[in-house]
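Structure tokens please, single chain.
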Amino acid sequence: MDQSEEALKVANKLISQNQKIESTFDRLEDEIAYIYFLTDHFVDFVAIYSKLNLNNYSVEWLPPYFYSLYKSVGLKMMEKASENLIRHKENEMQEALEEDDAEWEPGRRLEYINEVKSDIDFIKTTVREISLGKNSS
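Here you go.
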């Protein structure tokens, strides 16, 4: 059995065991999914990531997801997923702008909005690079 097959066997066992854990905080789907990504099993990776609330993840976790979408179901699905995440980020910015000033430490609102804008730029750049054929991992 080569290393890729061994890794897949381990990932399958971990996923099976992980599903028995009741606390979602203690589950490790995202880390286990990465084994599928590294072994080019993009459909399995997407199946796991599609069940996660990616809005709660740092954008740095997204390139393997976008790449896996691109490789398994195509450009349109990758673009649709990125548009949904961008829309959520834009809604977060709008909510931050509408909140009462007293809810924010001085300067923190602008800092947060700039962070969200940076996240949106990161998502757009990642999707553009993948669609142009640049590998992402």
